[in-house]
């Protein structure tokens, strides 16, 4: 087993070693985007300094090197999420693009009387593309109700499955509250009702070991930048048979077999769904991020993150005048709260003045905010680099905010 030396892990993140005004930076916004370890920054630099070339095209050595590295990362992602084939891994620009590619690509399989079930607590990226699909096809969207924990209500879900939905879109972990859904069970139920399943793993990928074959979903999507990798790259995993049926949302170079003015034929997976020059440096950065995660002792990291989250929930509760939303021991990565009747933005600004980075707003989950009957809230979220000192600095700052506002 790999030793768990938290200081050594944190020291790999150069951004975290800075002061903001008088305070050390306390980064509690990993759910929006994670910080990047030096190895990811170095991998991107190395590519631009030594290997920069387009992939899959030229006969020269630099291009061969770039292509090899790019395709190696595809293999790395395959192992990382345990997909059956490397061709099932599509590089996109992020979760948003991945979901749009499915919602667009599946249009021809959807008809006017079809039903699409969408998690009520989903991120807008997992709502709006389905609404657009419904507009194009005449299909109907039905939100999946939540239980008191604000995770998906399995009974209500089973009821909805009696309508034989064509497609089910779920969040693995919600970004607004850190709620965890038992996606393997939900997918199994959806599958027995004959539905195609998509799981949004954007908030799960940095915290859980993901096995897409065990979850057994048709599509699993996530972003590199929330798992210690760079922005500009994401993954669309699809079960080969489902993925191969998607109509490409982007067409052009790289994705074709033959082009003539009498007609064009498309290439095969994965190229068919990767038109144009990809974000090569970001893909290489993602490879370094996977290596970073694989270098960590997984069980201890999980335990560290869970105990930090528990401590965070407990300290917030003890502080008083705090409303927590959907907080429970099963949550992962984030805690959402409001301070008395204070506006979340005011709280956020006063925290920022003390070096604390949290997110305040509707968290791209307006339907969930509506359900909670709030306009927004503050969210503190954690990554592997956070320590108990971060939580203590945050709570001390919140004590000051409370003294100022209440
Ligand atoms: N889904 C969830 C659950 C998310 O947290 C996010 C990012 N906040 C997205 C989708 C969208 O990801 P991206 O902005 O990287 O496309």
Q: Which oligomeric form is depicted? A: single chain
Mean pLDDT, to the nearest integer, reads 97
The biggest sheet amounts to:
7 strands, mixed
Instruction: Please give the count of helices.
Output: 14
Strand content: 15-25%
Structural class: alpha/beta
Name the shape in a single word. Answer: globular
Ligand species: 4'-deoxy-4'-aminopyridoxal-5'-phosphate
Radius of gyration: 22 Å
Number of strands: 17
Strand order across the largest sheet = 4-10-9-8-7-5-6
Proportion of residues in helical segments: 25-40%
Intertermini distance: 49 Å
List unreliable stretches of 5+ residues.
Answer: none
Relevant terms:
four-stranded antiparallel β-sheet; pyridoxal phosphate; binds 4'-deoxy-4'-aminopyridoxal-5'-phosphate; 406 residues; seven-stranded mixed β-sheet; PyrdxlP-dep_Trfase_major; PyrdxlP-dep_Trfase; EC 2.8.1.7; PyrdxlP-dep_Trfase_small; alpha/beta
Please explain how this structure is put together.
By secondary structure, this protein is α/β, with parallel strands linked by helices. Helices cover 39% and strands 17% of the residues. Helix 11 (298-319) packs parallel to helix 14. It has 14 helices and 17 strands. It binds 4'-deoxy-4'-aminopyridoxal-5'-phosphate (PMP).
Write the layout of secondary structure elements.
Elements: H1 6-10, E1 19-20, E2 23-24, E3 26-27, H2 38-51, H3 61-81, E4 89-92, H4 95-105, E5 115-119, H5 128-137, E6 140-144, H6 154-161, E7 167-171, H7 183-192, E8 196-200, H8 212-215, E9 219-223, E10 234-238, H9 240-243, E11 256-260, E12 263-266, H10 280-294, H11 298-319, E13 322-325, E14 334-339, H12 344-352, E15 356-357, E16 359-361, H13 366-372, E17 377-381, H14 388-405
Helix pairs in contact: 2-10, 3-10, 4-5, 11-14
Bound molecules: 4'-deoxy-4'-aminopyridoxal-5'-phosphate (PMP).
């Amino acid at each position: 087993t790999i030793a768990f030396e938290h200081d050594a892990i944190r020291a790999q993140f150069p951004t975290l070693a800075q002061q903001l005004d008088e305070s050390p930076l306390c980064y509690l916004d990993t759910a929006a985007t994670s910080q990047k370890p030096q190895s990811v920054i170095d991998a991107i630099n190395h590519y631009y300094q030594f290997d920069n070339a387009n992939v899959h095209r030229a006969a020269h050595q630099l291009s061969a090197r770039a292509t090899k590295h790019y395709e190696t990362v595809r293999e790395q992602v395959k192992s990382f999420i345990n997909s059956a084939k490397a061709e099932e891994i599509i590089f996109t620009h992020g979760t948003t693009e991945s979901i749009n590619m499915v919602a667009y690509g599946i249009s021809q399989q959807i008809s006017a009387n079809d039903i699409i079930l969408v998690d009520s607590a989903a991120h807008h990226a997992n709502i709006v593309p389905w609404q657009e699909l419904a507009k194009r096809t005449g299909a109907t969207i039905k939100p999946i109700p939540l239980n008191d924990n604000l995770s998906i209500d399995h009974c209500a879900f089973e009821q909805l499955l009696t309508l034989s939905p064509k497609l089910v879109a779920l969040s693995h972990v919600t970004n607004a509250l850190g709620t965890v859904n038992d996606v393997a069970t939900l997918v199994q139920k959806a599958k027995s009702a004959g539905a195609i399943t998509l799981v949004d793993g954007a908030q799960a990928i940095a915290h859980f070991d993901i096995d897409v074959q065990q979850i057994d979903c048709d599509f699993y999507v996530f972003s590199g930048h929330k798992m210690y990798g760079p922005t500009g790259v994401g993954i669309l995993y699809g079960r080969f048979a489902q993925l191969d049926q998607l109509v490409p949302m982007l067409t052009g170079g790289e994705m074709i077999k033959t082009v003539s003015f009498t007609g064009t034929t498309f290439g095969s997976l994965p190229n068919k769904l990767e038109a144009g020059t990809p974000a090569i440096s970001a893909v290489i950065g993602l490879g370094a991020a996977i290596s970073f995660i694989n270098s960590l002792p997984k069980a201890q990291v999980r335990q560290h993150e869970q105990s930090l989250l528990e401590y965070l929930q407990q300290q917030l509760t003890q502080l008083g005048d705090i409303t927590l939303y959907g907080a429970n021991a099963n949550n992962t990565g984030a805690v959402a709260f409001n301070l008395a009747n204070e506006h979340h933005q005011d709280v956020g600004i006063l925290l920022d003045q003390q070096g604390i980075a949290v997110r305040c707003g509707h968290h791209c989950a307006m339907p969930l905010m509506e359900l909670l009957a709030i306009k927004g809230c503050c969210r503190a979220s954690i990554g592997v680099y956070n320590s108990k000192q971060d939580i203590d600095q945050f709570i001390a700052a919140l004590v000051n905010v409370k003294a100022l506002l209440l």
